[in-house]
Amino acid sequence: MEQIALALFTCLILAIVSKSLSLPPIPFYILAGILLGNSGLKIISADEVLHFFSQLGLIFLLFYIGLELKPKRLVSRGSAFLIAGFIDLNVNMLLGFFVALALGFSYYEAFVVASAFYISSSAMVIASLIENKKLILPESETVVWLMIFEDIVLAFLIFIISTGLQHPFVLILKIIAVVCLLFAIVKFVKQSLLKILQRDDELPVILTFSAVLSAAFISRYLNIPEVLTVIALGSALSTTNPKAFERISRPFKDVFLVLFFFFFGISIDFSGNLSLMQALIISFIAIVSKLFSGFIVGRTLHKSYSAGIEIGANTITRGEFSIAIAAIYGSEIVSATVTAMVISTSIVGSFMAKYSSKIKASLKKLGISSKP
Amino acid sequence: MSIKSIELPGIGTKYELETEKGDKIAIVFMDSGRIQLYILEKGSETPTAAELNAWETRRLGSILTGAIIEAEEEAVEIAFSTLSDLRISIHTYVISKNLAGKSIGELAIRRRTGVTIIAVSRKGKNVINPPPSFSFEEGDVVVAIGEHDQLKTFESEILGI
């Protein structure tokens, strides 16, 4: 009890500090965990209650992603969106994979690191677009849709990482069965769900919370990854009233997710095999890689280099999803690597996003024209 | 001039218009309820922006629509197309020294001009539907409702402008 209170209170203070410095709070939550946990002062240890709450954070984060997964929306966007998405995916996954291999990770671990390397932080990217008042630029639309594309790819990456590709046949059958069942149930009870969501008593909240928890429980019982089931549940419920579910689950997501980052920080072990050099290398390449993919997207879609710089600068930040991937996979060295990457990219990314127009202006002074 | 509406998932909806002269204006209604207003001057790459709350947006909106009829004062014209094009204007005026101390009934505003005073704002406090006995003070902001011509009569007969 006092551990959770202490954790949340520390995070609250850090969040106030980080927001007053216009820095993203996520790296600070992790740092708080590192500082108070095993690698630091050892004030807070990872007990079962904290672990349970942090699991809830992960589950609600992925439920939220599920709610945003509306396949119809993507089909209507057409080819420009897909081109941008595939450039971003290919450049960053490949570069991340080879860098990880070069740093000595196994093929499978390199895939996990590459996934965390690829996926930008939708939450921080979108918050920074609003904060830095960039929404009039057509590039910011491209960035927003890139985040949507990445979220869809994330569902597949989590599928691969959480199943570990073991006993694939039976497992995939089980997962398909559960997904179909969830969609069928939601379709069957859609009208009653919509009615409950309209009420203004406690019923909508209880409904949401129990649906998410039951989905997680059922998947444990059937021995399939719960992260997948909650994504599927979110996606099934997005056919009813996704806005209402988002509004209701948001407080749960916000609180538990902070504990999730904190817990992740506690459990990181830096005494292991990650050297400072390795951390610096992967962080640096993670920044360059997004700048590069943004540059190509800008040139292809907006026919302008400066648009490319804008897209690159705004997508550098890695965050909640990279941490989620590391937590699902769970190896110490991968977690430490991803943490280093998240902390450095989110801080550098927030500065680059803020000063992107100055960067563009100084590049122009150097004589680099904005049109190819 | 055409207004494009663009969905920004996770943020809200953006409305974009390009003026005749080539300046771009965008208004973003965010899911959070806040509104961002952008202006990108022609030829410039860095936009200017302001963030507004719902009240400020409405206020700005009424100024912008009012500007079509009267540039110097704040007014709104409402047209009901279903009621054979009934057009009603709502206008605000500031009470000058020469009307101070006189009541609505004394001035016989409705009988003389057809205009009705529907609200008075005095030092930040609002009186809705003031009675005929209501006396004006200098600096009161009144909201008057009527047809366009009636308001013109009100301006010349009562206010003396």
Q: What report would you give on this structure?
A:
The complex is a heterodimer of chains A (372) and B (161). Chain A has helices spanning 2-20, 26-36, 48-68, 71-75, 79-102, 107-118, 122-131, 138-163, 168-188, 190-198, 203-221, 226-237, 242-267, 276-302, 305-315, 320-329, 332-354, 356-365. With 372 residues, chain A is mainly alpha-helical. Chain A starts with a helix and ends in a 7-residue tail after the last helix. Chain A is globular. Chain A has a single domain (23-265, 273-365), classed as Na+/H+ antiporter like fold. Chain B is of the alpha+beta class. Chain B has two domains: 3-52; 75-159, Alpha-Beta Plaits. Helix content of chain B is 21%, strand content 39%. Chain B contains four helices and ten strands, in the order βββββαββααβββα. Chain B has helices spanning 54-66, 104-107, 109-113, 148-159; strands spanning 3-8, 12-18, 24-30, 35-40, 48-52, 75-80, 86-94, 116-122, 125-128, 141-146. In chain B, the strands form two sheets. Chain B has a five-stranded antiparallel beta sheet with strand order 1-2-3-4-5. A five-stranded antiparallel beta sheet of chain B has the order 6-7-10-8-9. The longest helix of chain B is centred in the middle third of the chain and has 13 residues, at 54-66. At the A-B interface, α7 and α8 of A face β3 and β4 of B.
